[in-house]
Specification:
The chain is of the alpha/beta class. The chain contains eight helices and 14 strands.
Length: about 280
């Protein structure tokens, strides 16, 4: 059965999102968005090593393992672990947004060049290849616009659709982005990754009202990749907004790794904690 699995890895401060597609004659493909690993703190690398050891029954990896790896935007809590992930597992392609001059992104581009990994920036004018049987659409950044000096608003926003259900993956995009694209959130959205770890600027406007919440289906499950330190995410005003709109939400600091599975079964995604 065709299936898309999305796991928000519990990495504390930052993001790391693992994707697995099952399709065709027992075929599987893997992708990763972001990793905040440091030299001493390697949650996403440890998770992936354990995941693939359980799946393959050994520590041997046939490279390149990942169909693609993506940097949602050029902040360290999203990208500082990607080089070691690419070195360990290999990747066919590396994607990223346009950015203001940023040395961390430049280092990843240089590593991709040295390693023979195809790489390119993304915008809403580029056709993104299917991921297994899932369709991937880039909603942001906008084509032919200069990158913002606020790196959060350079975040790649993806709508990934499988079996007539859509997952929204949003980086750290803020009000400016949602004012432009909230009307493009698909009506069949069943899972929405809350932008910027549940911070005010990811979900509320300057007046404290919801931004994307006005267009995201209220039946969608919200996922927050968060940790209370160092910025007290998620902010209470955001959680109050979710409560007033009757959204159900789950968060990595309370629920550990968050796994959502989209397949041909009816309507709502399967959700579970991934240990």
């Amino acid at each position: 059965m065709s299936q898309l699995k999305i796991i928000l890895i519990d990495v504390a401060w930052g993001d790391s999102i693992f994707l697995e597609a099952k399709y065709g004659n027992n075929r599987e493909s893997y992708a990763l968005i972001d990793s905040n690993d440091t030299a001493n703190y390697k949650s996403s690398l440890i998770f992936l090593k354990k995941y693939f050891q359980r799946k393959f029954g050994s520590s041997r990896i046939d490279k390149p393992l990942f169909e693609w790896i993506m940097l949602s935007h050029a902040h360290l809590d999203h990208g500082q672990g990607l080089k070691e992930i690419m070195r360990t597992f290999g990747a066919k392609k590396f994607y990223y947004p346009k950015s203001i001059e940023n040395s961390s992104l430049a280092h990843l581009q240089q590593y991709a060049n040295r390693s023979g990994i195809e790489h390119q920036h993304l915008d809403d004018n580029r056709a993104f290849p299917d991921f297994g049987d899932a369709r991937v659409k880039v909603l942001w950044p906008r084509y032919n616009e200069a990158p913002s000096d606020n790196e959060n608003n350079n975040s790649i926003v993806l709508a990934i659709s499988q079996s007539n259900k859509t997952c929204m993956l949003t980086g750290d995009s803020e009000e400016e982005v949602w004012n432009e694209i909230k009307n493009k959130i698909p009506a069949n959205t069943v899972f929405f990754k809350v932008p910027h770890h549940g911070s005010r600027n990811g979900s509320l406007d300057a007046a404290g009202h919801g931004t994307w919440t006005t267009n995201c289906p209220h039946t969608a499950l919200l996922g927050i990749s968060t940790h209370n330190r160092p910025f007290n995410h998620p902010h209470q005003e955001v959680l109050n907004e979710f409560a007033s709109q009757h959204y159900e939400y789950v968060r990595t600091d309370d629920n550990y790794h968050l796994e959502v599975v989209l397949d041909d079964n009816p309507l709502h995604p399967k959700y579970s904690r991934q240990m």
